[in-house]
Here is the input.
Amino acid sequence: MAKVRQKPNVKAQKSGNKLTEAQIAVHWKEEEYFRPSKRFIAQANLSDPAFVKKFSEKHFPECFDHYASLLDWDKPWRKTLDTSNPPFWKWFVGGKLNACYNCVDRHLAKHRNKAALIFVPEPEAESATVITYQELYKRVNEVAAMLRDFAGLKTGDRVTIHMPMIPELPITMLACARLGVVHSVVFGGFSGEACGLRAADSGSCVLIYADGYHRNGKWVDHKASADIAVRTATKEGQEIDKVLVWQRYPGKYTSDSPMAAGRDFFINDVLKNYRRQIVEPVSQDAEAPLFLMYTSGTTGKPKGCQHRTGGYLAYVIGTARYYQDIHPEDVYWCMADIGWITGHSYIVYGPMALAATSVLYEGAPQFPDAGRPWRIAERLDVNIFHTSPTAIRMLRKAGGNEPKIYNYHFKHMTTVGEPIEPEVWKWYYQVVGKGEAVIVDTWWQTETGGFLCSTKPALDLMKPGSAGPAVLGIYPVIWDENGHEVKAGSGNAGNICIRNPWPGIMQTIWGDPQRFVTQYYKKYNKNPKSKNWRDWPYYAADGAVLPADGYYRILGRVDDVINVAGHRLGTKEVESACLTIPEVAEAAVVPAVDEVKGRVPVVYISLKPGVPTTKAIEDKVTSTIETMIGKIARPKTIHIVPDMPKTRSGKIMRRVLAAISNHMDTGDITTLANPDIVEQIRELVQGRNVGPLREGPEDIKRFGDER
Ligand code: WTA
Here is the structure.
């Protein structure tokens, strides 16, 4: 199966003390290729070289017409791409369609009795529930009628949904899409406060909740966070008229939080008045926003990535079809949460547009033990599986042999969200995939709507740890800080960018188009007045290397974002939370390498004069972060330091702190205003003895550069 061994191709290039970005040497052992098993042959069209050729640069942008043609349009588009106002692209101009119709109604003729969703509750004693496309159709219509006539929502309104992984979440999203209501789903694990801020930013008057859910063997009282969300939104100037609450067990309220009269309503009760109602899907302009997805960036405030209806749906159906090889007869299980972009694109919109059977699992992968995912796969005969490196690492650590016990067979497995270590990839391939399944390592982002790099499943050779070539119609480039191309095979790292627009790219940042331009396009745009799309490459804020074989290896974020267990966390968000504590003078958050989660946040704080260092302050930091952001942002360690390492202009040198937390070389510190503090902090963190220094990964080496 292993085919070619490549030569290790990289060596360090240093220029004096300081490494320029382009010179950052990338040390890794080149991996052997794995040849996809012949057991499962891709059923999709990608095996046809003539088809692949249609996506060459010469055919841009019309190549994407094919993706759009996989959808049903009420009115065909006049023009594939309008680039007259860069970088605000318009896709499938003049076309009209409805996303819910495409994911539900159009499947009724052929697939009415087929499972659309199979819901697996966390408690193993509760059996799985199947929702057919027919039932989904009915339920989505009733919810749409309720949202329109009871909640008063109309096309273009925004609604914030803060829900766990239960079928009512995709049902609510599809009901919104039916009406042209823009949904903004906030990951269930975020705090009420985080939800309230997002609701305020999006201008939502309605919040949709669930009363509670099972997670890791515990009952989570989720409704309690709705009350905090409403308070937070109100403080931000956004009134919330209604909180609509799904009951996890219809007819039984399982939360201690009281229902506010006139504001809070049980959806299950209200729905009784909408039985049998059918709502015509609202025909939407291709450019009408479909949803917002908030994500972390370089500033403290999360940004609402706004995705369009036509281009987004075309891109996710195309990539789900060709890169995940999903067909109606497959049983597909993506273990991600719908509250993240992966769930939107590759649990809900992509697979459902393809009439897939999609498994929805409520709980933690390891509950009650590390065999759970494989039992689910065996029971439901899942044949396409999708998860993140963090989940793979966790399952490998907790039960490396468990997959062998169960009789399931995957034809295809996706990994997404973080760089995957070759060792972990090999376990995924050999043990989880039993050496039969092909793996696609898909690199992309919330902003990009769908995959950007991946191998063609069952067709391309696979290389552990490398995402692979760009997907159809995507033309990446790696540039150094000065805009010089880092050529394939040079062994240097640089910033990966996409030279062309594509239908899945976000439209703008909700309410902040200027930030959209600065964040993603300013860096490599040479002429802000240019009307030529070629002058507007998309800057992804990821470091990458490209060996001679054209397989991109993604090295991680180069901005102030930490990728914790595949979840994006803005270090500034965490720092802002720390600074709300009256005793805290300064805060700096840096990433530390973690064996399971990839990266974890480490918090450094200094206290105001006269405030003693106590455990109580540390606890306060943790609880404040959990309240303001959520448990996912919980720091691994909190260091209370006498002062921060600073430049002469007073800038905190986060890179030095990151180096200390990761036992790396702190580099040249002689130019600091207070170089002595570095040794003091080092001793505080690492103890008296200096251990061996580690090389450290690229994202940590570059951390803090951009401030
Ligand atoms: C990282 C998740 C390496 C990357 C879809 C990116 C990856 C960030 C991969 C986006 C991959 C995603 N290999 N790194 N296959 N996929 N990333 O917005 O740093 O939650 O910028 O989107 O995850 O995270 P987001």
The mean pLDDT is 93. The pocket of WTA is lined by residues 295, 340-342, 416-419, 441-446, 467, 542, 554, 556-557, 563, 568 (CB under 6 Å). The CA atoms of residues 186 and 354 lie 25 Å apart. The chain has 21 helices and 30 strands.
